[in-house]
TrEMBL record:
It is a multi-pass membrane protein. InterPro entries: Myelin_PLP, Myelin_PLP_CS. It is found in: Membrane. The keyword Transmembrane applies. The keyword Transferase does not apply. Belongs to the myelin proteolipid protein family. The chain crosses the membrane at residues 19-47, 67-92, 113-137, 205-229. Keywords: Membrane, Transmembrane, Transmembrane helix. Pfam families: Myelin_PLP (PF01275). It comes from Pipistrellus nathusii (Nathusius' pipistrelle). The lineage of its organism: Eukaryota, Metazoa, Chordata, Craniata, Vertebrata. PROSITE patterns: MYELIN_PLP_1, MYELIN_PLP_2. This is Neuronal membrane glycoprotein M6-b. PANTHER family: MYELIN PROTEOLIPID (PTHR11683), NEURONAL MEMBRANE GLYCOPROTEIN M6-B (PTHR11683:SF10).
Length: 246
């Protein structure tokens, strides 16, 4: 067998769907965790400097955000390992393994492990749909603040007395209590907040984090198809040679 034929045979056994899903999963989780971590820190800074000057008013929120930052570390570590495991499972259920290591039969243990991956991937997919929806909440909040600032900057309202009547009350989102001071920012003070680096960076980082969560959902959907197909082959061809290329 020539070197070219050997390379073609090896490439023919690569689980491309699992490989694409792994790359997409790593990219999505990295964007979500990295950008989300920095954006949460920026959000705390904005709240402390402008919307809640008393630390006791947002003490609970600060603890929750700190806990979420630690959870982000765990998510990144878990999906790094889980992505590698699923990619390895995809490789070991392809024809490349049969060509390299000889004929083999499926076992009950192998089918059980494959079924466990199917179930776990479905659970993670549903969970990440919730994460994706939750990550859109800060984007919505920052978008409302940004759009209010754009109204203030518009020629129709800029320089008029009505500018100071345009306000954003962060307390209505429920992230700080109603007795927080000042809680509401109006007019030129709100415009100054929108011009800060913290607001600009946090807003765009939340958008990227939301996109990363969406990419992870797509990756898990691909994993679902790949693991389900592999399990079906192991289940219905348990008495034959296992050979998948998904």
């Amino acid at each position: 067998m020539s070197c070219f034929e050997c390379c073609i045979k090896c490439l023919g056994g690569v689980p491309y769907a699992s490989l694409v899903a792994t790359i997409l999963c790593f990219s999505g989780v990295a964007l979500f965790c990295g950008c989300g971590h920095v954006a949460l820190a920026g959000t705390v800074a904005i709240l402390e400097q402008h919307f809640s000057t008393n630390t006791r008013d947002h003490a609970v929120l600060s603890e929750v955000i700190q806990l979420m930052q630690y959870v982000i570390y765990g998510i990144a570590s878990f999906f790094f390992l889980y992505g590698i495991i699923l990619l390895a499972e995809g490789f070991y259920t392809t024809s490349a393994v049969k060509e390299l290591h000889g004929e083999f039969k499926t076992t009950a243990c192998g089918r059980c492990i494959s079924g466990m991956f199917v179930f776990l991937t479905y659970v993670l997919g549903v969970a990440w749909l919730g994460v994706f929806g939750f990550s859109a909440v800060p984007v919505f909040m920052f978008y409302n603040i940004w759009s209010t600032c754009e109204v203030i900057k518009s020629p129709q309202t800029n320089g008029t007395a009505g500018v100071e009547q345009i306000c954003v009350d962060i307390r209505q989102y429920g992230i700080i209590p109603w007795n927080a001071f000042p809680g509401k920012i109006c007019g030129s003070a709100l415009e100054n907040i929108c011009n800060t680096n913290e607001f600009y960076m946090s807003y765009h980082l939340f958008i990227v984090a939301c996109a990363g969560a969406g990419a992870t959902v797509i990756a898990l959907l691909i994993y679902m198809m790949a693991t389900t197909y592999n399990y079906a082959v192991l289940k219905f061809k348990s008495r034959e040679d296992c050979c998948t290329k998904f």
